[in-house]
Amino acid sequence: MKFDFILHWLWAIVFSILALSGIAMAGAKYGWVMQYDIATADIVHRLAAVVYVLLTLIIIIYEMIRILRRDKTKKPWLVFGPSGYGLFTFITTLIFIVTGAMIWLFMDSSHAVTAFALWIHDKLTYLAVASVIWHIYMKSHALKWPKKKAQKGR
Amino acid sequence: MWMKKNRFKLMVWMVTTSFFFAFAAILISMFRYGPTEQETMSFMMGMMKAMETSLMGLSMQVKEDANVQWLVYESVQFALPLLAISIAGGVYVRCRRKV
Q1: I need a surface site. Which of A52, A67, A141, B97 has the fewest CB within 10 A?
Q2: Fold entry, domain A1-131
Q3: Full-prediction pTM beyond 0.90?
């Protein structure tokens, strides 16, 4: 199995967990997503965020190794890219990480920083989830269920 | 081909469906009435519980621990030069190799 393929789907799973646990914490209107169990949502969100940052580092290191080796082979499953949706994902990921770190670090010390970072984190989530839906639509051929092989004897 | 195997397709369907659920949850929450008083109370109680029992509470304890704070400070002292070297190395490689 290809490394970029594994990274892509690990990324998708972790982002899905982050989106669902994050939505539950977005406000009283959204709490029903996780039955108002904010404590669990918080733990899940923070643990998934650590994996998310690690995956980001792995992908960046993988890209750097490819540059050093002058590897120009196409990696269709790679999460980040120099243009298109790969670039959008890269930029949004960096903003998610920076604002997430700001929320985590300044939650108790600076309400202004936390509020600003939360606003960006929150609005970017809606944009990112909508873009993922678009991404799924564009790559919907991956959803096609494999056809059964022709029965013997026909 | 391994990508056309049923178990792979099943995973694709499950992961993609979760995004549709997330999107639907956002839309439903945005455009519905409320929140009611009961929902607000449930949310606030959930937040209070998170403050006590989750990593949020743990991170607050870390902030009060002088030893951990010293460790974080020392780590940052190491991390910042490493980060600067990494960025400089990346820029050098990017410019030099012209990939």
Answers
A1: A141
A2: Fumarate Reductase Cytochrome B subunit (1.20.950)
A3: no
